[in-house]
Amino acid sequence: MSTLRFVVVGLGHIGSRHAETLRLHPEAEWVASIDPDTRKSREGVPHFASWSDFLAAGIPCEVASIASPNGWHAEQAIAALEAGFHCIVEKPMALKAADVSRMMQVANQTGKSIIGVMQNRYSAPSQYVKSILEAGRLGRIYRVQVDCFWNRDEHYYSGHPWHGDPHMDGGVLFTQFSHFVDMIHWLLGPLEPTWAESFNHKNTSALDDSGSIAFRFGQGELEGRGSFRYSTAVFGKNFESTLSIIGEKGTIKLGGQYMNQVHYAHLDGQEEHPEFPETPANDYGLYQGSAANHHHLIQNAIDHLLRGAPITTPASDGLAVVSFIEKAHELARFR
After folding, report:
1. What is the set of domains in the chain, with CATH numbers?
2. What is the pTM of this model?
3. Which residues pair with 199 in a beta bridge?
4. Which of 97, 57, 55, 70 is nearest to 15 (CA)?
């Protein structure tokens, strides 16, 4: 097989990015889309209002790229796996850890692959920090600080019925900030939240817009501590997403709105850090999302399915992120 055929499930902002990335890739074919809103259909691509309608059409296809609202990810991924498709699943993989575990179980039973979407890992600054940590150049890691302060106002919540819905959205840790939970897990995991609180300042939805989480990372003598502060109550536009890592042999800080810049790096034997081109953000009109690195993720999926390359964003990492957020929500509820 020289190409892979994809069906895109959900044609909102992020599903459209999946679709256009597939359209431009020489080893991919975007053969169909599924969305209950038929106005989102694209010329030349068969469009279906439901998964059952797509299956009934019998269009040859190998991969389902799931970019629907969060609350549908697990159900749709399991249906796709059981029908014989590999799956790319947008973040969060589900809103419950038990659902991600079930997805992984079905993938194992059917012999199909699940690839999570955590594209911030692919940015050059993220890869730089990963290489520094893997080489042990920071020594023991003592402390981590994450600050994510974005804007999601009344217009955001009124524009899409599922935004702010407890059963479809899940809250800002799932919808806005799971990328950055994944970054900490990928760089320093395993993670375990130890304390959390959350607040609803603007009452734009039924869900809290801000909070703080204390967590521990690493194990045994190498265990460290960190904190994660987040909010979508920022006025007007996104402010920042920063990650500071303090180690016995150096300090690194990623910054910018999407952790897409190296703001500071002071390492033993190194006074300056390399400069990297800034990764653009996913542009959603009035709002911007995380770094626009989906082309790297699609390439990894193709390399895995056509050439046996390892998955760089496996479902087990998606499970770790969902489990962390689920536990943080529980801790906040008890306060």
Report:
1. 4-116 (3.40.50.720), 121-290 (3.30.360.10)
2. 0.93
3. 210
4. 70
Distance CA 133, CA 185 (A): 13
Which pLDDT tens digit goes with each residue over 22-59?
999 999 999 999 999 998 999 899 999 999 999 999 99
Question: Is it the case that residue 159 has pLDDT exceeding 60?
Answer: yes
Whether 149 shows a pLDDT value over 90: the answer reads yes
CA 192 to chain centre: 18
pLDDT digits (tens, 9 = 90+) for 244-267: 999 999 999 999 888 889 999 999
**308-314 contact pairs (CB < 8 A, 24+):** 311/113, 311/115, 312/121, 313/115, 313/116, 313/117, 313/118, 313/119, 313/121, 314/114, 314/115, 314/116
For 177, the token pair is 């900030």
- Helical pair 97-110 and 315-333, crossing angle rounded to 10 deg: 160
* Contact assessment for residue 217 and residue 189, using Cβ atoms and an 8 Å cutoff: yes
Query: How crowded is the C-beta side of 201, counted as CA atoms within 13 Å?
Result: 12
